[in-house]
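Two proteins, back to back. First:
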Amino acid sequence: MSELRLGERVPNFILPTVTGEQFLLEEHQESHRDCWHMIVFFRGSWSPACVRALKEMEDHLEKLTNEHVTVMAIAAENAAELKQMSEKESLTFPLLSDEFLSINEAFGVFTASQEGVGSFGEPACFLINHDGELLYQQKQTGPYGRACARDLLETIRHLKNQQHTKGSAS
């Protein structure tokens, strides 16, 4: 399992979206140059706790956008199942399918397995700046205890304030 360290560049990746397109992280960063990017890993559409967390993220999406943060979510589940959940829950941020757990592994996300579901990644969140450097990470070993969208928003504001303070002191 990889171990990403704060300040390091996160690995680039390409994954299919629920809309049938290919999502390339570098391309997304390039088209959103002035933004930070939040990558949310979740167990799958079958997890009520994860669905609630994604709905909460959607509820805070406007505030995150106002902070110049884009959101994307990744699960080790096929795109068709993710698409059904996305439509049912009216999620508007990109949902990406990592069926073979390769991106989960590249980010050091803990994995587990469950009868009837197979292998999946546990919840995790990574915040990267406009240069692709890791600013924040939180990885879970189970479905509960993750930072809520409100707390992540406060973390973003805190990090931006720190960055602004550091920049003005030099």
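And the second protein:
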Amino acid sequence: MEDEAFIALELEDMLRDAGFDIAAVFSSCVDALEWFRGSSPDIVVMDIGLADGDCVRIATLLDARNIPFVVHSASYANSGFHDPIFLQGTWVAKPASPSELRNAIHASLAMANGDDVSWSAEAR
């Protein structure tokens, strides 16, 4: 979920190169919420704000459905300029290297599955 076209394309390529399948890419909350009505991804990579506003409803939905998410934002987790629901996700500041994003995704998936994630700190 990214509203900047260049960043969205770069992320999509980066994630595909890392071996992930991309189910969908959204630049608006409305489109993403509509898609989530019938779909349940393994994980979501999201910016906290899209073209039509902040993604609080989406983060709340993901949290309620126990779908892990990675917040990929120029804002920092401890900035205080965002809704606390986003702290339920794993934060990766923009710009991020492919390995940072990949490690965050793997760690988020492992935590969601109740696995030991101590390896992720070493991988960074």
